[in-house]
Design a protein that fits this description.
Layout (H helix, E strand, L loop, with lengths): L1 E11 L10 E6 L8 E6 L9 E5 L3 H4 L8 E8 L5 E9 L4 E8 L10 E5 L39 E5 L10 E5 H12 L6 H20 L12 E2 L14 E2 H10 L2 E4 L11 E2 L11 E2 H9 L4 H9 L4 E4 L22 H14 L16 H13 L10 H14 L2 H7 L2 E6 L14 E6 L2
Length: 447
């Protein structure tokens, strides 16, 4: 018997404020495991359960194409007095992989009859019955003159993305504003297997990011008066499941690469990097094969080599330099014992604020010197949020600290601390004649 692990985080509403002593019930039934397994858990002061071990299918089911289920399933019930019960059906457990489930519990309103929220996680696209991607140009252009394009100098890495959970023509489908990094993790957790080689995960992650950024910067849907940036329909976009579990192996890659995109010569936008599974659907020229990327990684190919194999040798991997929430810029080097200066003060101030909700994190003097206490604070933070526990504030840790700081702070605290003001960007094609459209709100630095 093989096993995977599961860790559950519980938060207040749509924030990163943890809920302590949440009652958690994990139920693994006989359908995808040898026996029914019920475990009762509780969250600690960081809103996290202990890591538990659960049965998983043979590794062979997920490392080669198969019609056998590559994961086992469990249901999760999260309960806190004063909050709606949250039931998550179909959390996926892969062999040798840590599954991570975020549970955002909503307070019960005084006049609400519905006291339960339910999330259902559907099958992975490699196995499930999803419509094939309808081919389109890799180089879609907005329906406006080039003079109206959003220039690269104004590109912001999104803080959030509005996802339409259905086909673009399905007016009954729900729209959800998702954290951009969570969106990427959800897509990858639904589109590929998390126990593939890291270079295959990196290649697929870069393709997924480039595709999403193309939809945003070409204003593909917003220019058509749609109130969303992208859909979850595999016929036109990428599969995404609202509220689903993610996996540590995928999360680590996204946290490192979430600003990446693919650049193609003579094209003004990130490449619309289309892909198929490569087994059930034949891979057109210029598209990535998901299973093919896995097999290339097995042979030692790097993520960049895999992407060039499928999207042509003239592509380049680029990074967006400006954040949508205008987080103070990463200094360009890891902060470690002995580091000094303003970047260290930013880390110390942010972690001290986060520690008010996460008491396991020790508070530091805000002196701009990274000593043993600040190192311990960074290391504790990394352990809570599933980052490698190095005690060094690298690129991924810097931006994760920013994410959590924003998630536990009021907008007033955030804008005051980083000298930011709220600005609104309107798609340029609409500026002349329609104020009633989807806009991008972001925070801009003022000096």
């Amino acid at each position: 018997m093989q096993t995977g692990t599961l860790k559950i985080h519980v938060f207040h509403s749509n924030t990163y404020i943890p809920l302590e002593k949440a009652k958690i019930t994990v139920i693994q039934d006989k359908e995808t495991s040898n026996k029914q397994n019920i475990q009762d858990l509780s969250t600690d002061s960081s809103g996290i359960t202990s890591q538990i071990e659960l049965e998983a299918p043979p590794l062979e089911n997920s490392i080669n194409p198969s019609d056998k289920l590559p994961y086992s399933l469990c249901d999760i019930i999260a309960e806190v007095p004063g909050y709606k019960k949250l039931t998550i059906k179909g959390c996926q457990i892969y062999p040798g992989v840590e599954s991570i489930q975020y549970c955002h519990l909503n307070p019960i309103g005084s006049r609400e009859n519905n006291i339960e929220d339910i999330i259902t996680i559907t099958e992975n696209t490699l196995l499930g019955n999803y419509p094939a991607k309808i081919p389109e140009s890799q180089f879609p252009r907005p329906n406006q003159p080039p003079s109206f394009y959003i220039s690269r100098e104004k590109w912001l890495n999104p803080d959030t993305i509005m996802v339409h959970y259905g086909h673009p023509k399905d007016t009954n489908a729900a729209n959800h504003k998702e954290d951009f990094k969570y969106y990427l993790k959800s897509v990858l957790a639904t589109e590929i297997n998390p126990n593939w080689p890291k270079e295959a995960i990196k290649a697929n992650a870069t393709a997924v990011m480039s595709f999403a950024l193309n939809r945003i910067f070409t204003e593909w849907y917003t220019a058509k008066n749609k109130k969303f940036h992208i859909t979850s329909s595999t016929a036109v976009d990428q599969a995404c499941i609202h509220g689903r579990n993610t996996f540590a192996s995928i999360d680590e890659v996204v946290d490192d690469l979430f600003t990446n995109y693919i650049e193609k010569p003579n094209y003004e936008f990130p490449l619309l990097a289309q892909y198929t599974d490569g087994v059930n659907v034949k891979t057109p020229s210029g598209w990535l094969s998901q299973w093919g990327s896995k097999h290339l990684a097995d042979r030692g190919k790097t993520a960049e080599e895999i992407l060039k194999f499928y999207y042509s040798s003239d592509i380049r991997i680029r990074k967006l330099k400006k954040m949508g929430n205008l987080t103070p810029s990463y200094p360009g080097f890891p902060l470690q014992i002995g580091s000094t200066g303003e970047p260290v003060k930013i880390i110390q101030t942010s972690l001290n604020k986060i520690a008010t909700h996460y008491p396991l994190i020790p508070k530091s003097n805000v002196d701009g010197n990274l000593g043993s206490v600040t190192k311990k604070a960074i290391e504790t933070f990394q352990g809570i949020f599933n980052l490698p526990k190095t005690g060094t504030a690298n690129y991924a840790t810097w931006h994760k600290i920013s994410d959590i700081y924003v998630g536990i702070s009021s907008r007033e605290d955030y804008t005051d601390k980083f000298r930011l003001t709220e600005e609104t960007s309107t798609p340029s094609v609409f500026i002349r004649y329609s104020p009633n459209i989807l806009t991008l709100t972001y925070l801009d630095e003022k000096y």
